[in-house]
Amino acid sequence: MTSKTMRAAGLITLGLAAAGCSTTQPPTRTLAYQQPEPQPDPRIARMYGAEEDQGWRIPAVDPQQIEPRNIRQVVDYRTDETPGTLVVDPHARFLYLVMENGKAMRYGVGVGKAGLEFTGTGTIARKAAWPRWTPTPNMIEREPDKYGGDLRHGMAGGIDNPLGARALYLYKDGRDTLFRIHGTNQEWSIGKAVSSGCIRMLNQDVIDLNRRVPAGSKIVVVGIDPSAAGTPNGDPTS
């Protein structure tokens, strides 16, 4: 082999070696049957992102844990109740804030287990941010192992407190009904009957509701016939 031929062979060998060390990858092929990654709902990102509130960090809502129907939204709503009234429908698992012109702000909620719900009309007598929580005597009696220990004396407000970021207290005829509308970090519980009688909302939603509803507002918790208070009409408008 001549020196010229040997040099050519060496260059070919170096070229192959260099090609073997290359980090260049062939273009990724998208298979026809491959499903695209689901994109998060921008409404959830906008309304339910993480936020700081009075020294506490409220985590973002996991989009996989909330149904689209439970996202805060304005809906058509027929009712004889005046604007500013709260209507809770435990059967549909919604809370409505009645607005002008046949509209309502609708929130998805978690409700009390069967037999634990309050029904009737009352007043939001007071509101509290990051409230202290104490189990009721009935809760202690029903589940002494869960509530009868140190918890019977209550828990200071905070991100792990069962009442969450805000609580609205329902009174009837001037007396505390022990019925609360309150926040929760357990987004999986929205739309379900899991609580000890109160109405739970996502922390971001209960903060929004608290801003909109002054103390003294009327609240209606409907019974078997929700049409007595109001009827949804059509699709959400936003």
Automatic annotation (TrEMBL):
Keyword Methyltransferase among record annotations: no
Domain of life: Bacteria
Positions of the L,D-TPase catalytic domain: 84-222
UniProt pathway: Cell wall biogenesis; peptidoglycan biosynthesis
Keyword Nucleotide-binding part of the UniProt annotation: no
UniProt-annotated catalytic positions: H182, C198
InterPro entries noted in UniProt: LD-transpeptidase, LD_TPept_cat_dom, Transpep_catalytic_dom
Segments forming a coiled coil: none
Family membership noted in the UniProt record: Belongs to the YkuD family.
Protein's recorded name: L,D-transpeptidase
